[in-house]
Design a protein that fits this description.
With about 60 residues, the protein is of the alpha+beta class. It is built from 2 helices and 2 strands; from the N terminus they run H-E-E-H. It has a two-stranded antiparallel sheet with strand order 1-2. The N and C termini lie far apart (about 30 Å).
Length: about 60
């Protein structure tokens, strides 16, 4: 059974400062990403297990 779930997003969810922080964190994560795999229902990202990366993912 495949249920499609509509996705909607609002750019107003975060404040300007929160968006800037999110972008900074995502740039760090992208730089350290070990791999990405496309799955049937999304993507799987692989990151190192060091404390700094785990802190960013939390």
């Amino acid at each position: 059974m495949n249920k499609e779930i509509p996705v909607a997003c609002s750019h107003m969810v975060f404040t300007k400062q929160q968006r800037m922080e999110y972008k900074r964190i995502w740039e760090k994560l992208e730089a350290g990403r070990l791999g990405i795999t496309e799955l049937e229902d999304g993507y799987q990202y692989q990151f190192p297990g060091d404390p700094e990366t785990l802190r960013l993912l939390h």
